[in-house]
Amino acid sequence: MSPGPLRSAELAARRGWRGVAREDAVALGVHCDERFRILTSTDGFECLNLGRATGLESRNVELRVAQHRAASDEAFCLSFARGVVVSKIKNARTMLRRNHAAPEVAVLSELDQLARKAAEAPSLPSLLGIEGTAARVYFGAFAGMLKGAGEARGEFDLEGRNRRPPRDPVNALLSLAYALLAKDLATTLGTVGLDPLLGFYHQPRFGRPALALDLIEEFRPIVADSVVVAAINNGVVAPDDFQRFGGAVALRPAGRKKFLQAYERRMDQLVTHPVFGYRISYRRVLEVQARLLARVLLGEVEAYPSFRTR
After folding, report:
1. Its pTM surpasses 0.85
2. pLDDT of res. 291
3. 131 is annotated as contributing to ligand binding
4. Averaged pLDDT in 10-residue chunks for the chain of 310 residues
5. Which is it for strands 248-251 and 36-41: parallel, antiparallel or unpaired?
6. What's the gap between Cα 174 and its chain centre?
7. Which residues bind Mn(2+) (predicted)?
8. Which option is the CATH number for 60-297: 1.10.3210.10, 3.10.20.880, 1.20.120.920, 3.40.50.300?
9. 104 annotated among ligand-binding-site residues
10. All structural domains of the chain with their residue ranges
11. Is 24 within 8 Å of 32 (Cβ atoms)?
12. 217 carries a ligand binding annotation
């Protein structure tokens, strides 16, 4: 039995939308003038409380004005985007170096070269092209990080990234991990007082958390991809945890629950912050990065230090 719409609102406020029944979330969306955005996908059901995630509870008007001003500054947007894309590529290279059975020197070298190109990209469109090339190189080597064997290894093979819908178990896990991370970032940005819908790299679009998608880039490899690799290699999910319908693949409820637990464990793991030098959880890192961005927008810090691990 579901806890009901009002109880679901309390649960959502405390621990997010996991575990909130679909019918209760729909009821909340209807009764809250669509502040609760209802999202459905082949990975399952997700909701994003736009009322909370967009920072409506924040009173920091100066920060919001500064964010809107920066979003119109082409030089700032390009500088910010270069930083997050360079860190994404560097973190992807680190993932391969740490987890690949035998990472090819040519692949690691190409990612290094692409990171250097990204740092000097003359425009956002050119940066998007460099990012896309790096993603193809990275995902071309991704299967080498998966340590399954025999029949299971075949189920968890990956020939490249695909989505909308994901067509194999690995891509289904990647899509779900990215959705969870985007939700956490959107909520964190709203708590800090930033507008998750107004980004600097990803272009604004109705209902799209563009700023969350900006910041997610540096965390995709080391948080989301890391969860997927660990969940497969450690047997957290198995081939029979997935179901196929049409050309799509999605987790069954039991498999989804196990993967959500794995994601939460990763978010609670400690890492040394490269700027401050102390160890904090990845969940706390999201907040620290959001607050650093806020300080940049307010003129208290010169440039945004995107998160990069070694």
Report:
1. no
2. 96
3. yes
4. 42 43 40 38 41 53 95 96 97 94 90 97 97 95 76 57 74 92 95 95 86 96 95 89 84 90 94 87 95 96 89
5. unpaired
6. 10
7. 131, 202, 217
8. 1.20.120.920
9. no
10. 60-297
11. no
12. yes
